[in-house]
Amino acid sequence: MTTDTTTSEGRAAGGWDWNWIDFAERFGLVIAWAALIAVFGAIAPNTFLTWPNFSTIFGSQAVLVVVTLGIIIPLTAGDFDVSIANVMTLSSMIAGVLNVQYQVPIGWAILAAIGAGVLVGFVNGFFITVFRIHSLIVTLGTGTFVHGVTLWISDSMTISGISMNLVKYVMIERLFGIPLAFYYAVAVCAAIYYVFEFTAVGRRILFVGRGREVARLSGIRVNRVRWGCLMASSFLGATAGVMYAGTTGAADPVSGLSYMLPAFAAAFLGATSVIPGRFNPLGAMLAVYFLVTGITGLTMLGISTFVHELFYGGALVIAVTLSQLVSGRQERF
Amino acid sequence: MRLFGFMSALALVSGALTPAAAEDLDYFKKQLDPFRDKPGFTAPGEPFDAKACMQDKKILTIPITSTNPFNQNIHRGMEKAAAAVGFELVQWENQGQPTQWVQGMNHAINQKFDLIDLVGGTDPRVLVPQVEAAKAAGIPVVASHYSGLEQEVPNATHAVPIDYFKAGQLLVDWAVVETGGKLNALLMYTTGPLSTDSMMAGIDAELAKCPDCKVTKKNILVTDWATRTQPTVQAALLADPSINYVIVMYDSMSQFVVPAIEIVGARERAPIVTFNGTDFVIGFVQEGKVAMDIGENLDWVGYAIMDAEMRIVCGLEPVKDPKIPFYLFTKENAKDAGTPPQPSMGYGAAYVDGYLELWGVK
Prior knowledge:
- The structure holds 2 protein chains of 2 kinds.
- Chain A is mostly helical.
- Chain A is 74% helix and 2% strand.
- Chain A has one domain: ABC transporter involved in vitamin B12 uptake, BtuC (Orthogonal Bundle).
- Chain A is built from 15 helices and 4 strands.
- In chain A, helix 4 (62-76) runs parallel beside helix 9 (180-198) and helix 6 runs antiparallel to helix 12 (222-248).
- The longest helix of chain A is centred in the last third of the chain and has 27 residues, at 222-248.
- The N and C termini of chain A lie close together (8 Å).
- Chain B has 2 domains: 23-36 and 165-295, Rossmann fold (3-Layer(aba) Sandwich), CATH 3.40.50.2300; 50-162 and 297-325 and 350-358, Response regulator (Rossmann fold, 3-Layer(aba) Sandwich).
- Chain B is built from 13 helices and 11 strands.
- Chain B is 44% helix and 15% strand.
- The N and C termini of chain B lie far apart (76 Å).
- In chain B, strand 8 (245-248), helix 10 and strand 9 form a beta-alpha-beta unit.
- By secondary structure, chain B is an alpha/beta fold.
- The A-B interface holds A 47, 50, 52-53, 56-57, 60-61, 63-64, 151, 155-158, 160, 162, 164, 167, 171-172, 247-250, 252-255, 257-259, 295-296, 298-300, 302-305, 308 and B 65-67, 90-100, 102-104, 106-107, 110-111, 123, 125-129, 154-155, 191-192, 219, 221-223.
């Protein structure tokens, strides 16, 4: 059980008193990110410390941000959705197959792709809430099933030649030098932040995640909330798939699956920041860019790939551990 | 009835040994012969002064993933070539995610590299906007070791091809000869890479020349190799006891095929023939688990890619055939690759001096 007691107590007791522990906990990841940028910037100022490099980081990893944001919705309600990467791959493939092989206009192809994603979320919710099966098992099964569908409709082939209109509005068009994909991710992040922090729905999701029985006794329709969260997650997975197709200009049946672990790593890392102890969209987005900045810096320095893995895994474990030590909380995740 | 059966069997045996059948097999044997000797160096183009024209030039290479030995061995060859000529070669380390390739492409454009090399499977078809941006910046995008000689690579400005069609033909040639023209093969392949299409065309073309041969094809994606290959091979061998050869398109898949054959007890009945010359599979050849592996020297491949790409950067006529040879590793010569086998060993070293002289650095 997680509580926000440290934060609220600090404020209540101290008024304007500066609470270093609270500050370090909330913005530790931001500080670490800045430190990372400073280190890589000092080592490779001409390559790393350039706006084109940061615009590339922001633009190319927007897909991962959306997948991570999708994951944190059911996580907040206490459910895992491990089918999201499969939904993402299915969505990009549906958009590709319809647009390239059946000459369906890209707008309709996108709608079909997102509709298919939402359908998967509906099926997930159905089995999880109606038959009371653990979300991990159901989404593992549906994810595998969805992967089979993806291979079937694509004949296990890469589909290239997707409408340049999609590519244009995801990757080519830029604002302040950053591809539009980044701003879509920011918009999704802002929307989730608003729902989580300022609406009754957001509070209900949180209550359901913290204690299903208590939430039920409080009059919250727990199953409906969980079902909705799973559908929202799949919706964002499908949206990420469309963005993925726009980022690469093609759809392939397997590479999207590699997003699963980085997305979960970022979700858990993000939960140590901004609103510590809670899955939150700002923290998740920060975590994605913290991890990607580290990987990009290491890549530019020509550091071997195994160091990337050390960084990824090490950053996650160290961040979560430090957060526990600073706050002294128990059983946060 | 017994007499009839005996006569039929006799007819079958004598039929298999008729001069006509032997002549038919001669064709397949002749296809294999040129690849049994250590490969010699053939210059892929005219000599040129590489040191002069590559001065201050830099090439970024984006492998399909930095984590497989295949790509790393090619890269080592490329590094040696770049060091000999004296220009900057940078590898964009990645773990096979297309968005990491996107970052690499953007990095090359931002840092004004002179050429981008998509090596060993990095798919230019999933980098449409980035290739367009590179073209707009005047940077050639080369897909190397990805397509066959007869294939066009969509969305790349140039290619450094491999004769995958021939490799596919050689797989069938070997199996036909070994089965006396009565091949019933299980073909394990992987869709996705362009090279598969080229190899499959070569396999089909050669099978068409063998009227008594047949094949059962099974497609397993790379990501499913570890989990799906073994049960698929086991089931196929059990379902059809007359399968007498297993053709494995890419040899790294063999590590999952070998245990399947061992479990079914079919090592004698269905030997493996495969392609790539990966060192651990040559080890399998030494142990008798694989009958033949068509090898390509990855160090040589690295030099050949650099040769082709330097010509592009220097504004010379692009190479259509980089002349990267194959060599058949069998039980007889597999020990030349070392014990345990080492990457790029067993092919001879004629190519190193050949390229250095071609570039005017020796």
